[in-house]
Amino acid sequence: MRSCIPLVLAVLCGLAWAEDHKESEPFPQPEEETEEALTSNLYLAPTSCQGRCYEAFDKHHQCHCNARCQEFGNCCKDFESLCSDREGFSYSSDAISKEEIQSISEKIYRADTNKAQKEDIVLNRQNRISPSETRDQVDHCPKPLFTYVNEKLFSKPTYAAFINLLNNYQRVTGHGEHFNAQQLAEQDAFLREIMKTAVMKELYSFLQHQNRYGSEQEFVDDLKNMWFGLYSRGKEEGDSSGFEHVFSGEVKKGKVTGFHNWIRFYLQEKEGLVDYYSYILDGPWDSYPDVLAMQFNWDGYYKEVGSAFIGSSPEFEFALYSLCFIARPGKVCQLSLGGYPLAIRTYTWDNSTYGNGKKYIATAYIVSST
């Protein structure tokens, strides 16, 4: 029916930036240097469309990523791979268009009734630094990021089910993950709870209409494989998964990778395990969910740039990341949230597959918002 590829996601708002997903290993490891490299230049590499898709024409740029660059023959060499409007599973007539993705993302945004309200979270952003300072590992913020969180949010079924999953992983790559019966049941419970929400119902309805899934059970089974299926990020077999990487966070080669979730951040900060250092970008939204790109230390390991939604429900993030992976696997995904553009980049795990050659989610993160 379709060839789905597991997803990993990242998202960012404000000016363009992203996380590095390249290493000198046989199989590229998403997100370990991309973030650092791209934040060193807020507008990203002048010869790439990374984070620049469909920007306004600027005569000072060496190459271009605007809607008419193909007409004038001055596109950056990666324009087609990063900015194509009709991609995903095929170039056929049923491919999902940019406009359709933006429309469903707005519906998902409006459907997130479980999100935090303004009074539920008080942030203390403190000091903003420039991208050139992100490698300095200097703590510019003496106080925690979260001044207050209404923890009644965490008693909601999807939040509670999500939190149950966070401590089921060994954060250092190279150590195989082994789930017991209770942990496997917690994965099923989370998927069961999010599928009850309007957010996930909107997403499933859209994807079914797009001929991506024939039944809700097929959709849920695929989500479980793409997010919770284990693959090898280090030397040990089955030491990582999309969920662990994106939401819980990992440590590889002495660096924090993934860790894109505000709930995880708050809980770890509350325990004294996360030390918030600074931020480089803050999203344009004046209500939740918002987006923040920040630097922090996680129990002795540094995160040079970490993007995260703030105040979103677990199902909201899960839905957007899944949408982008399914519609734009391994590419930039142009969304619209509350009238503001947002780009998410997903990466597939090419070293191993599940099912009929489907690939696992490697990472996903926020790329840009203007």
TrEMBL record:
Domain SMB: 45-87
Signal peptide: 1-18
Keyword Disulfide bond in annotation: yes
Organism name: Callithrix jacchus (White-tufted-ear marmoset)
Keyword Hydrolase among record annotations: yes
Subcellular location as annotated: Secreted
Coiled coil: none
Domain EndoU: 97-370
Top enzyme category: lyase
Catalytic activity: ribonucleotidyl-uridine-RNA = a 5'-end dephospho-uridine-RNA + a 3'-end 2',3'-cyclophospho-ribonucleotide-RNA
Protein name according to UniProt: Uridylate-specific endoribonuclease
Gene of this entry: LOC100398744
SUPFAM superfamilies cross-referenced by the UniProt entry: EndoU-like, Somatomedin B domain
EC number: 4.6.1.-
GO molecular function ontology, one term from the record: polysaccharide binding
